[in-house]
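In response to reviewer comment 3 from the previous cycle, which asked for concrete evidence that the modeling workflow produces usable outputs, we include below a single protein chain processed end to end. The sequence was submitted unchanged, and the resulting structure tokens are shown without manual editing.
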Amino acid sequence: MSTLQIPKPLRAATGRVRLASLPRVPIGALVGAAVVLFFVIAALAPGLLTGGDPFAIDLGAALQGPSPQHWFGTDQSGRDLYTRVVYGTRESLLIGLGATALAVAIAVVLGLASGLGARWVDGLVNRGLEVLFAFPVLLLAMLFVTIYGPSVTTQIIAVGLGTAPGYARMIRGQVLSVRTSGYVEAAHALGHGRARILRRHLLPNATRPLVAVVALGVGQSIVWASGLAFLGLGVAPPSPEWGALLDAGRLFITHAWWLEVMPGLAIVALALACTTLGRFLQSNLEGARP
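The workflow returned the following structure tokens.
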């Protein structure tokens, strides 16, 4: 009896089908991931990217333009701007991550209370969110920083409070959609408790869109914090935080453009990289929905 043999062309075709079924990562997402990885390394181990001291003063090298010796030029005190941008990544990224985490935490509480609470609770939360929406994010953050003083902590709280209403409104809409879904009704029919349904079904599915939005929010929070610092409401000098670098370079912008352009490029690069990754995650999550 002869055995059944699979023709070689069929095997090759099967292999091609399997390779074609693998998800393709766009070049933009790869570049965004590389940029984010660079800044993560700069935040965790800046010594791997530069051997200089961000606070070393050399008055003889003050306000020198970009060169092979100083890639980003020097500031008014002769400090290497590239070194300061690298060392300032930690505080800037901390502000972005901290403000986004605070905003999401507030949004989860408000969104769940509004979507699952009684009608008067929903109305109260919505009225409060509308009041917060009436204030521009920058104006609300400026008010908070003016009252409590400029620092990394106040910037995190100020930007987090300013961006929380948008996340809360999103979570409320997701909760209202998920609570009437078939699997939640089936869980109720099986006698599952409210805590288990909330933990196993409502919370994971209601916060699912935030996976992509959080990546967008980190870059946005860094931009807001840098705007506060540019207005003199950020971290005090001589901190190398990016917003503080922008604030310090305002007085020399007419004849030392690199003091504004280089930190600004770092902010834009990180914000665009986070946005690109967020878009990629969002498209993949939407494609994975049943």
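Residues 145 and 154 are 6 Å apart (CA to CA). We consider this sufficient to address the reviewer's concern, and the full set will be provided in the supplementary archive.
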